[in-house]
Amino acid sequence: MPDVRLAYGRTGLRVRFPDDRTTVVTPQHHAPAADPAATLAAALRTPVVGPALREKVRPGQRVAVSLCDVTRPQPRREMVEALLAELTGLVSRDDVTLLVATGTHRGNTDAELRSMLGDELVDTMRIVNHDARDADALRWCGVHGNGVPVWLNRHWVEADVRITTGFVEPHFFAGFSGGPKLVAPGLAGLETVLVLHDARRIGDPRATWAVCEGNPVHDDVRAIAAATGVDYALDVVLNREQQIIAAFGGDVLSMHAVARDTVREISMCPVDGLFDVVVTTNAGYPLDQNLYQSVKGMSAAATVVRPGGLIICAAECSDGFPDHGEFREVLASAPTPQALLATIAARERTVPDQWQVQILARVLDHARVGVYTDHLSADDLRSAHLAKVDDIAAAIAAEGPDARVCVLPEGPQTIPFVRRY
After folding, report:
1. 62 with 95: CB under 8 angstroms?
2. Matching InterPro entries, A to Z (predicted)?
3. Model pTM?
4. Does the active-site annotation cover 324?
5. Which of 155, 171, 197, 385 is catalytic?
6. CA gap 127, 86 in Å, rounded
7. CA-to-CA distance for 390 and 13, rounded, in angstroms?
8. Which side of the chain, N or C, has fewer Cβ within a 10 Å radius?
9. What is the pLDDT of residues 140-160, one digit of tens each?
């Protein structure tokens, strides 16, 4: 029987699977860049499209840098240090504000910021957690895309130079992460995010993994970034060890298109037909800190599980549902996944965390879902229409001796799809 290490928390989880009927889908192995600092510097000096970074900045200008929050494995310290090194002689650290693009997530703690950026940057830089609910921290930017009212972080809007930093991977309803998402929803007000993630957009079949053009969510994300202005964008592609493989810089939309072509090649995997059981993860820490984020791993599994089949998601959920936000409350507001979908479709206005609930309800309408976790009880999971799995191998055995099994050890780091002949 194959012994597979699942990405789970910081330590991983080993599980034995049936030998003759298990397909394991893993990311292609890619060695890290030999010199990550040089790779980042090259992306700042030789952009995909447009002038180099130093040509975009004049001495003394105010610079705002958008970066991912603690739920994403972005190499923030390395990317910020590369930016500062490239801007030496043009701006000082006092001219630069680092904006943690939390979207509607909670602000990151001092300890989290130090783990994300290191003590030296935290102690010497101005760092601001974006707060989508603080009206005083937002500025009106007009209506863009398909009728999206756009409020953005005031530090971003008022800066002379705006730089996004992120990493690119497939995203379960926005197509891909990185690039323009570091503007909206990353630095957007709550009203903006609620429209971007409304039931109509999230429910569109094109709002899915690896689709950007024609995806109503990503179409509006790109429109907002283009209309409100990004002066330079820096994105990286990571391997399964969360090391830098490649870096891309330049115009945000052109750069992102090239970066996601690279990711599509290394992160999409064809399989032969649907499976009775799909075991997935949310790629371990920091991505599996809560159930909210782990919906992504479930969504990846749903692409290749048969109707009525079983999805098992191994997610540590050390931060619970989490307790902040309305995810748990919205999940528990209807007796069945079908009722949840009907309630969401009938609402005139999106509520916070509804989009994650809508994705999960859609998965649950297609398949049964169990969760292996050390931090949520059976009652907790039952309130979310999920089952508790205490033994993954036993749960698979209970599906019968002929059940075909697919394993996604890194969860949404590799997105499977059924091969078409």
Report:
1. yes
2. LarA-like (IPR048068), LarA-like_C (IPR043166), LarA-like_N (IPR018657), LarA_C (IPR048520), Ni_dep_LarA (IPR047926)
3. 0.83
4. no
5. 171
6. 19
7. 13
8. C
9. 999 999 999 999 999 999 999
